[in-house]
Structure formats: structure tokens, C-alpha cells
Design goal:
The N and C termini lie far apart (61 Å). The chain is globular, with a radius of gyration of 19 Å. The protein is 84% helix and 0% strand. With 238 residues, it is mostly helical. Helix 3 runs parallel beside helix 6 and helix 4 packs antiparallel against helix 5.
């Protein structure tokens, strides 16, 4: 009976994820078709370069902490708090690294006009780090419908805001606003729905266990993102 119950939850979760993926995909297609008429090719070019730089930095935040939470057999309060604390530390470090190096990166990839957008979008790295803990807890509990609702609500709000800003002539800042706002909304909703209250804990032994589990995942993410984004970075400068 227990096996049948778990199988039913898994099947229901997969069905929900498939439905949510289709809905999100359709919303993105509609959003892109509208934005492509409101923004110029230059706007999309700048945004592609910004996205490529951010993706490389984002890989350093993919430490496997979320996977460690999902795979942990005996998940306790100390482990959750340590996961959140470690995510916060990595998020702050990577966000600051992007913020401080934005001027150099902007001149290397395109021109100095990219500096401000990179600094603005650096906040998404910290938000995504913290959101991963909340979303992993929901995924562990098989709350796939709630995760889907978070994504749909976030995309709906940010798409409307981006279209309005693009129509008012904000250029690629409209897309940047969409990305930043999406990370903030996802963090807020996932925190509320996960129902967790975190405490900052420094436990070297638990930190080592978490990072030991996800260290190779982070290394793989770094190499994967660099390999997939290097063409965008080079093409922008050329």
C-alpha cells in the first residue's frame, strides 16, 4: 500500500510538472512574441550578453545544496539551517563578485553600458541561492503543484511588468527587470509556502557534508555553463 501511495504521488507530480512546463512554455512564447515587437535587436543583443555573464556566475551558486536536501535520508532542523546558511554565504560571495567585477566584465564583453545592468542583476544570484532551499524542501515533500503555482504566478507578474516597461521605451532594462523581479517573487512565495523559519548556523562538519555531496555538481555546472555561454560572450564583443 505504501509503495502504491508513493507511486501515485510520483505519477501525480510528473503529470503536474508536465502541465506546468507546457503552460510556462506557452506563456514564454507569447511574452517573447510581444517583446520582440517592442525591443530592438540591439536590446536583445545586450541582454544575451548579460545573461551569458550571469549564467557563468550562477553556476558557482549551484553547489548541490538543494540536491543534498532532497537526497538526505534523515533531514533535521540543523541540516536545514546549515543548508540555508551555506546558501546565503555562497549567494553573498557570488553576488558581490559579479557586482564588483561588472565594470571590467562589461568592457571585456561589450562596453561600459553593461556595467549598471550587471550590477542590478547580481541580486538574482543571492535570491536564487536562497530560493533553492525553499524549493528543494517543497520538492522533497512532493509539493509539485505549489512549485508550479509559484512559477506561474512569478512569470505572469513579471511578464506584464516587462511588457509595460518595454512599451514605455525602457529597452533591455525591461527584460532585466523581469529577471530580477522573478527571482524576488520566487524567493518570497517559496519562503511563505515552504513554511520554514531559518536560523543562521555555522557548523563546519555539516557544511563539509553538504558541500562534499554537491561539490562535484558545482564543478560540473561551472564547466557546462562556461562551455555553453562562451560563444555568446565572444560574439557580443565581435
Amino acid at each position: 500500500m505504501l509503495i502504491d501511495s508513493n507511486s501515485s504521488k510520483v505519477f501525480k507530480g510528473l503529470s503536474t510538472q508536465s502541465l506546468v512546463t507546457i503552460v510556462l512554455g506557452l506563456m514564454e512564447v507569447v511574452s517573447f512574441s510581444i517583446m520582440s515587437r517592442l525591443l530592438t535587436e540591439k536590446d536583445f543583443g545586450y541582454y544575451a550578453a548579460i545573461l551569458a555573464v550571469t549564467a557563468v556566475f550562477q553556476s558557482f551558486t549551484e553547489t548541490g545544496i538543494g540536491s543534498a536536501i532532497i537526497q538526505r535520508k534523515d533531514l533535521n532542523r540543523n541540516y536545514i539551517n546549515c543548508s540555508f546558511s551555506l546558501s546565503f554565504i555562497f549567494g553573498v560571495i557570488v553576488s558581490l563578485a559579479l557586482f564588483l567585477s561588472s565594470g571590467l566584465l562589461a568592457r571585456s564583453v561589450a562596453d561600459k553600458t553593461m556595467t549598471a545592468p550587471l550590477r542590478i542583476i547580481s541580486i538574482t544570484l543571492l535570491c536564487n541561492c536562497l530560493s533553492s532551499v525553499n524549493l528543494s524542501i517543497l520538492q522533497r515533500d512532493m509539493k509539485f503543484i505549489k512549485i508550479g503555482l509559484i512559477n506561474i504566478i512569478s512569470l505572469t507578474i513579471t511578464t506584464v511588468v516587462a511588457i509595460v516597461l518595454a512599451a514605455k521605451g525602457f529597452g533591455y532594462y525591461a527584460i532585466i527587470t523581469k529577471g530580477v523581479l522573478a527571482s524576488i517573487i520566487t524567493l518570497y512565495l517559496s519562503y511563505i509556502i515552504a513554511g520554514q523559519r531559518y536560523n543562521f548556523i555555522f557548523d563546519y562538519r555539516t557544511y563539509r557534508q553538504i558541500f562534499g555531496f554537491g561539490g562535484w555538481l558545482m564543478a560540473a555546472a561551472v564547466f557546462r555553463n562556461i562551455a555553453s555561454q562562451v560563444d555568446r560572450l565572444l560574439m557580443t564583443s565581435l
